[in-house]
């Protein structure tokens, strides 16, 4: 500590998985900002040099070589006498041997004086939900603190603070503060869970805690940042913003007892409820499109609520000029759907084109007539419409480059109310983890709010009739969702019980649902697993999405 004051800069960055050179550039820029602020130490997040989660990339020796070279380059920078660096990186036990069979750790590294001065390995490797670190990393020993710039700092890594063991070990071995580096994905209500967890650790250890979290989208995960600092009295001293990068310096002194104390710093209000979910959708889509290098997106506008909210999220994420909307009418498309879709595109300022799928339907009718003969029309013909639309959208994507944005919600994806190779085709789905009732709530909310950081227009963007009319796939005359599904209030409650809570049928029925309805929904849910395996990825916002969080067999005869 210089002049009895310690400056710890927190780098809440948005790294890109695999872009080690780009991530190194982000770290160097953050270190420059820390130096300009007079900070002594820069702290960055879990596995920031590789991006998080790197998944099986860490099984490639060439990838680990590149990551370690990036770390060593940043370590060499610290010979300039500027801020030391604490960051997360994959680290081999004996990197000089380059052995494939050596231990690999998810580590916090301390860089100072031109070298890697200390290594602390993650002790508690998560192996649930979206995490599978036990198959990739070796757990470390219970760690001791590191001595850095006159302070003894404990360096738990993410899951390490979800139980008392690591924090207690660090405190008992003389840690004066906990600096927890994290890659903690967003889900609704999680920021408060993190805060309560940190408060619990402080109550046990009675030392300050820094919770530093990554920000940005990575495949289906969104990291919301929202990093914070609590003092030993469990008071919030620093709160970084959610859903955007930030570098902020915190200032520490010793109190009259010689303990580390942190001063008040920036405190940003965090979004919650619909605002937090919506911003997660925007960030998740934006980073998926931009990090993959797509020029924009193309989607079919049906005049319904799902394609409407998807288009609005896309405009807010990318700007209206990067969103291409397409009307794909069939003989069953209502005039009001065409009008509503056109009004939506006008309100958003997005390009709107029309591709009539009627000729494709007629061509398929002729092609299949020898096989179908005089059989009554039904789901096969309905799905031909959806697949004709998918072919048209993919053709536009192939010709002009924008990614096809799929628009099915979680309720539909759960029960299979979607067409494989039709409306399910696409590169990404922003609302994949959003139940239908929540889609409506987000639409109403967005009509009244322009979220921070959005590129779309302010004011009403979704026509009122889109929100109020009865939902319909419009694949047959006078078709309504309610003809084949329970009401969405009822359906979504049953689905949440089955998916998020793994409740038994009797428990769900006890909530006021008819047993036959519960059984029907359960059957639809399990029967659609093969479809979901082939669906595009989408933003995770709930505790359990329909992808890596919920790994059910496709062949499955169990019904509860």
TrEMBL record:
NCBIfam families: nadE, PRK13981.1. This is Glutamine-dependent NAD(+) synthetase. Its EC number is 6.3.5.1. The gene is nadE. InterPro entries: C-N_Hydrolase, C-N_Hydrolase_sf, Gln-dep_NAD_synthase, NAD/GMP_synthase, NAD_synthase, Rossmann-like_a/b/a_fold. HAMAP family: NadE_glutamine_dep. ATP binds at residues 300-307, 407. Residues 6-256 form the CN hydrolase domain. The keyword DNA-binding does not apply. It comes from Rhodovibrio sodomensis. In the C-terminal section; belongs to the NAD synthetase family. Belongs to the NAD synthetase family.
């Amino acid at each position: 500590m210089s002049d009895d004051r310690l400056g710890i800069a927190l780098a809440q960055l948005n790294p890109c998985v695999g872009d080690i050179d780009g991530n190194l550039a982000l770290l160097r820029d953050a270190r420059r900002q820390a130096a300009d602020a007079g900070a002594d130490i820069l702290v960055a997040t879990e596995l920031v040099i590789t991006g998080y989660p790197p998944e099986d990339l860490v099984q490639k020796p060439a990838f680990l070589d590149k990551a370690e070279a990036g770390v060593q380059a940043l370590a060499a920078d610290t010979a300039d006498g500027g801020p030391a660096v604490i960051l997360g990186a994959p680290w081999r036990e004996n990197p000089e041997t380059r052995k494939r069979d050596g231990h690999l750790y998810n580590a916090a590294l301390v860089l100072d004086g031109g070298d890697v001065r200390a290594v602390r390995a993650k002790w508690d490797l998560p192996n649930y939900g979206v995490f599978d670190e036990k198959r990739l990393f070796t757990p470390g020993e219970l760690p001791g603190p590191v001595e850095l710039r006159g302070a003894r700092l404990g360096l738990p890594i993410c899951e390490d603070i979800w139980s008392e063991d690591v924090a207690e070990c660090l405190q008992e071995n003389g840690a004066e503060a906990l600096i927890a580096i994290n890659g903690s994905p967003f889900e609704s209500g999680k920021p408060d869970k993190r805060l309560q967890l940190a408060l619990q650790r402080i109550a046990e250890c009675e030392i300050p805690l820094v919770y530093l979290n990554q920000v940005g989208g990575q495949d289906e995960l969104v990291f919301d940042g929202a990093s914070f600092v609590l003092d030993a009295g469990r008071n919030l001293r620093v709160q970084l913003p959610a859903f955007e990068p930030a570098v902020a310096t915190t200032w520490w002194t010793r109190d009259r007892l010689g303990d580390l104390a942190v001063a008040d710093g920036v405190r940003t209000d965090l979004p919650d409820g619909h605002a937090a979910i919506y911003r997660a959708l925007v960030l998740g889509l934006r980073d998926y499109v931009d990090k993959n290098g797509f020029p924009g997106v193309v989607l079919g506008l049906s005049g319904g609520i799902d394609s409407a909210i998807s288009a609005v999220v896309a405009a807010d994420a990318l700007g209206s000029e990067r969103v291409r909307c397409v009307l794909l009418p069939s003989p069953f498309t209502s005039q009001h759907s065409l009008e509503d879709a056109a009004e939506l595109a006008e309100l958003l300022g997005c390009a709107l084109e029309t591709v009539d799928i009627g000729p494709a339907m007629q061509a398929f009718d002729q092609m299949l007539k020898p096989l179908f003969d005089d059989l009554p029309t039904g789901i096969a013909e309905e799905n031909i419409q959806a697949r004709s639309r998918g072919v048209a959208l993919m053709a536009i994507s192939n010709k002009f480059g924008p990614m096809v944005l799929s628009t099915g919600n979680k309720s539909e994806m759960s029960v299979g109310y979607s067409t494989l190779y039709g409306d399910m085709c696409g590169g990404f789905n922003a609302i994949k983890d959003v139940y239908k009732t929540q889609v409506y709530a987000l639409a109403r909310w967005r009509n009244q709010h322009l979220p921070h950081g959005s590129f779309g227009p302010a004011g009403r963007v979704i026509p009122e009739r889109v929100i109020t009319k009865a939902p319909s796939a419009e694949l047959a005359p006078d078709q309504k969702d309610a003809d084949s599904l329970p009401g969405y209030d009822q359906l979504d409650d049953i689905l949440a019980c089955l998916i998020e809570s793994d409740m038994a049928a009797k428990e769900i029925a006890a909530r006021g649902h008819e047993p036959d309805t519960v059984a029907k929904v359960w059957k639809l849910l399990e029967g659609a697993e093969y479809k979901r395996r082939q669906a595009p990825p989408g933003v995770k916002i709930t505790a359990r999405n329909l992808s890596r969080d919920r790994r059910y067999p496709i062949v499955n005869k169990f019904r509860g």
